[in-house]
Design a protein that fits this description.
Layout: H1 2-5, H2 17-30, H3 35-52, H4 55-65, H5 70-119, H6 122-127, H7 130-137, H8 139-172, H9 174-180, H10 184-221, H11 223-228, H12 232-284, H13 290-301, H14 304-331, E1 359-366, E2 376-383, E3 388-392, H15 399-406, E4 414-419, E5 422-423, H16 429-435, E6 436-439, H17 450-455, H18 463-472, H19 494-508, E7 512-515, H20 524-538, E8 542-546, H21 550-554, E9 558-563, E10 566-571, H22 573-579, H23 582-593
Parallel strand pairs: 3-8, 3-9, 6-7, 7-8
Antiparallel strand pairs: 1-2, 1-4, 4-5, 9-10
Helix pairs in contact: 2-14, 3-5, 3-8, 4-5, 4-13, 5-8, 7-8, 8-9, 8-13, 8-14, 10-12, 10-14, 12-13, 18-19, 22-23
Length: 594
Amino acid sequence: MVWSLTHAVSDRDRLDRAAAGRVVRRTLGMIRPYRWTAAAAVAVLVAGTSASLTGPWILREAVDRGLGEPGVLAGAVLAFLGAAAATLLLSRAQILLVGRVGERFLRDLRERVFTHLLRMPAAFFDRNPTGVLVSRMTSDIDALQDLVQLGLAQLVQNLLTLGLLAVVLTLLSWKLALVCLVLAPLVAWATIRFKRRSGRAYLAVRDETAATMSALQEGVTGVRITQAFGQGERRLAAFLDGNRRLLRANVTAVRVQAEYLPVLEFAGAAATALVLGAGGLMVAGGELSLGTMTAFVLYLLGVFEPVQQLSYLFNTAQASAAALGKLYGLLDTEPERRYGTADRSTPDRPAELPPGGELRLDRVAFGYPGAAAPVLDGVSLRVPPGERLALVGPTGAGKSTLAKLAAGLYDPDGGTVTYAGADLREVSREALRRRVVLVPQEGHLFQGTVLENIRFARPGASESEVRAALDLIGATGRFDPHAEVGERGALLSAGERQLVALARAALVDADVLMLDEATSSVDPGTESRITEAMDRLTEGRTVIVIAHRLSTVERSDRIAVVEDGGIAELGTHDELITRGGRYAALHAAWEVAR
């Protein structure tokens, strides 16, 4: 039962009865498209379980009718073979049907969760760490995968087996069934105690396993730094300490099993002994046939295995219910942004934005969740069409936040951001991205070729259009468009990765470009070669650039100094130098550094 150890559920994740009911109802709603397959799976499961329990009954009939009779013996053999064949075929059909329904349900769930995440605004990912969101799609789905592949059918089958055995034992001899109940309190006490203690033990195993795997991943990922500073012994000591904790957790879990399983074995042996004693007296007195007692003992021996199985499956069912609850909670998280009609699943066409409009921020305020103070407060700014505006200021002043608000990646907490008079919150995502594009300082690359990564900005673009975009930014000949980029662009240099990001912007051909110092990752030689191409790329467009280099600032039409949650200064380079304020001091520092 290793799989049950890795998916224990903590007390804080356990669902109360009402929450569990909601999860079950919602799950039944999701599998409604496969209800006939699910119904067939249940029917086959009932038939297969019933067929697997016919053996002792066949033996009873054979013993009572006389095994010495050739006809009786042959009939018993054929009946056993028939039951075995039926069990084989029904078990195979049950696995296929349950797996088909379960895997389709998981596929639909993955698609819904991933689609939902793609709809969420950037602020959602600031509040929810990537690791937590990835765990929803991995560890939580894995918990459900175990339930689908192993646990669900076994859970239902064991419950059904216990129910059928209770009925059969009562039908065979209600007196012997009452004898068995003598040991029921012992089994119930041991099972309840095992559930309580195993939940804590298995949770400790899961937590220590996760910590050990995290330490292992971190150690392998940072092996070069570890070797560079000669800290191998220190890293090894930390890993060994975590590994010892994992060992202790596993030993504790094994100890819990060691206390529970012998109790079940004792109860089974004791119950069998009691039944043999009482049943022998009843057979001797003519009150019970030998075949009936034999069948009763065989059925009794099959009772305790389902009890043991259910004790383990309880944790898997709890973990799966908790995982489903988390996933449903994620799906119920509504995006703060109410995009235009394209995101509301209506047949209406999304609102289009006219080209060449004015970008305007009016008394904009914004703060990150948990921050002591807002990053921006009461910022107003007008950027006319075709202007190149540079944002400068100290680290953490809010330059990137201001650019993301202007690009519509964040919604302001107060005030409005408009383009061509349209509030960005009321514009469809697709229409907005055709007009406004942000090029981050480090553009993310996906597994695939350079061509595929550039085409990511406009999937329908032809190869010639992609090559034209590369030519526009002066990157023709720097790499083969059909070359693989590796994971996160590992096969490209930092400068080449940035060129791919710039080529995406060129391919979109947007009216407004937000550049987070798009040339900061390229070498001076490359920068000088693409400066002219960047001028062609930005010609006739509105450009807001987060500037970290003096050359970028001096080529801007206006400069905004972002500081203390607002715009401290705004004007041309010459105007701000003449004022002798914050920008003048910053410019002087740049001159010295140059």
